[in-house]
Amino acid sequence: MSTQNPYQAPTGELTEENELYGKIRLFSPATRIGRIRYQAYIWVASLIFYLVAALFSVVAPMVLNAGGISISQLLLLATPLYLAMIYYSIVLMIQRLHDLNRSGWFSLLILVPLVNAIFMLWIVFAPGTPATNDYGHRPPPNKIWHWLCAFITPLLLIGIIAAIAMPAYNQYVERAQSMQQ
């Protein structure tokens, strides 16, 4: 006679192989992205934006000097670029908030001074929900290019800070030495 204990723990295998991954849609706020993917997408979008802006700043003086277009018309042509970047940044922020199991409305915190700095640190560094949450399945694993882009950003920031700080420090040392003499 075999009796089953209703209080016995299940013996099923709990692996992540059966875990479903959500679909990544770049321009839809209804999906989730992790912190590495968020940093990579922001980096690539910023790079594209700055390249187009640089091209625009090279072409704009030539067009203005030719006299065929006014500066207000030129700014009107640049407006879609700025609007596209703002829209894409907001969509990525909402996707990241969904990964943190928070509403996309939290993205309005970016408009509050001082709170926005803490909010961005939270967006960038907080780990997402490890499994399915209210906003869908977890995002698929990151690819190598996501990791590369995400780690290029801090290296670039350190390089920029060093490029600014080193000459300023050298100037300070020279002034201090000249004051002592």
From TrEMBL:
SUPFAM superfamilies: MFS general substrate transporter (SSF103473). Coiled coil: none annotated. Keywords: Membrane, Transmembrane, Transmembrane helix. The keyword Transmembrane applies. The chain crosses the membrane at residues 40-64, 70-93, 105-125, 145-169. Pfam families: DUF805. GO terms for cellular component: plasma membrane. Signal peptide: none annotated. It comes from the Bacteria. PANTHER family: BLR8105 PROTEIN, INNER MEMBRANE PROTEIN-RELATED-RELATED. This is Putative membrane protein. It comes from Gynuella sunshinyii YC6258. The lineage of its organism: Bacteria, Pseudomonadati, Pseudomonadota, Gammaproteobacteria, Oceanospirillales.
